[in-house]
Amino acid sequence: MGFSCCPFSLVFFLTIFSCLSLSLSQQPYVGKSTTACSIKDSSNSVLGYTCNGVNRSCIAYLTFRSFPPYDTVSAISHLLASDPSQISDRNSVSKAKTFETNKLVIVPVKCSCSGELYQVNTTYVIQHNDTFLLIANNIFQGLTTCQALEDQNSNLTTRLLYSGTRINVPLRCACPTKNQTELGLNYLLTYLVAKGDFVSSIANRFGSDTGWTLQANDLSEHNPTIYPVTTLLVPLKNPPSGSEIIEPPPPPPPSLSSPPSSSTEKDSNKTWIYSLLGAVGGSVVILGQWYLVYEYAANGSLSDWIYNDSKDGIFLSWNQRIQIALDVATGLNYLHSFTTPPHLHKDIKASNILLDSDFRAKIANFGLARLAEGEEGQFSLTNHIVGSIGYMAPEYLENGLVSTKLDVYAFGILLLEILTGKEIAVIYKENMNLSHALSAVLSDEVDQESLKLFMDFSMEEKYPYELAKFVVRVTYSCLEKNPGARPTMAEIVHSLTITLSNSMAWELSKTT
User: Active site residue: 71, 327, 347, 407, which one?
Assistant: First the structure.
């Protein structure tokens, strides 16, 4: 009789211990697993955060970095299943607000348990060439994972994602544990980690405590490493407000709309433009003559690296190529969007891209640069057609139409050369129709053989296939015959920024 009570006592003890453990335990940080789509290890929260809080449902907060077309209150609220009124209130903006690209937006959501995991349920309609990885990391920026998407859409595979299909998307959120509520922590914010972020800087940004944030994510002071395109839970006493995420704006650029009053001022303005693009360190007068002082390009021009079989046996890696493309896109975006009036370079090509000792790209040779004289979305005309063969957009060659979309087209050609390791003249000889060549790569959903043949063989297939196809798609959009169908450089910068973050995470996932 006495012996029979032991199992009951043991069960009672284990039940109490289990409840206590759940109330005190925090959520494991997802780590480097977000690009390893075949790994579904729930121990690191790759499928979502465990339902271990005091409440099975609560108000939580997500962060999201705006980008077209998800750059308005209504679009973000629809994408993330949030109330537009609450988004406008939390960010102190109107419901008609359009956010600048890459603005960090606070998104209030209803977080609830679904089985053993917390999540916000939303949906997404598949677009052409989408994959679970691209949806998770590019569209939702890490608020879900490819593993979670596969798990909750088990009737689909990456190869069966047809355009127009609506899928379920579980967004990562969590409710405070008993331990957290006893400390007065009433909310958890799901923060999207970006390059250069640290746990301490994220906590400070939202008025939280670094120790609380480390504990919330099961991280230690000895190993606080976090990675881009992952989420970090930030415990908060009070709801976050837009004022807490406002960053100091960059200094306004001087206007270039008025003609310089002297040749010295004219040269100074040119130097200022070049300097902001990283191509020059300044200017100097020697014996009455002005000279531009260029930063030393320790690694020469980009053409030296992508057209030759090797450079002392060294090849540009996938990440280096994407970083170079992003550097060039960022420089062009500055010319197009942050100078008044906008300027265009008109001679973007591999030989005009210089590489420093860290393989960071600098745009050089502004000899053909000019003002973009047309209004937004409009064109100006010229009869003086100049540029580099293969890089000039069709509307410019055929009709003399000038706009910032000329640089976008030339950038698409440059991106094509970066991916293939071939000069545009060689590519034209192999296939005169670039659209058909790119379409063949994008339509190959079976064994990626077309992609392997398309990419520079010197990379030895050491690149993430899905991200490579995404960059091919960006290239395709840049080379649209209709200039109005081409993306802006701001959109390209966003796409390449996300690609670089994903690529870095992919590279880390390959390391032990």
Answer: 347
